[in-house]
Amino acid sequence: MPVSMSQVLAAIDKDEPDYGAATRLGPDALPHLRQLVEADDPMRAAKAAHLAGLIGGAQAAPVLELAAAHRDPTVRVAAAHALGAGTDTPTSLLERLLDDRDVGVRKVALRAAKTAKRSQLRNKVSEMAKDDPDEYLREVARDVAKGL
Questions:
Q1: Higher pLDDT, 147 or 27
Q2: How many domains does the chain have?
Q3: What is the CATH number of the domain that holds 52?
């Protein structure tokens, strides 16, 4: 059953969206979520990225790619969080977010790496444990690296 933009907006245009219910929109919502990530509304874009990650699947990856490259760090944080929630997390995208210039994005990306338990991320996380400019993130990265 086709999903309309108005259905997607009805699901996410709330202070506290019910993402569990919103995931029932399924992959048909992803083109609309992509449009929302590309639009000039960071709050909607962040919610759209989060929902795309929860819907998951190969079709969600391009939406998360756009969100991870968004100019607003709030949207990049949402992308990192979504990558931690998904089982088919693109490792290369998570690596890129671990290198983000924003400390908040890197922090959430570290949490996602811990949740995703991707051994391919061990080297990147170990680098962060030595070289990240933020002392707290270096500590977190050391703990995450042990779990990978």
A1: 27
A2: 1
A3: 1.25.10.10
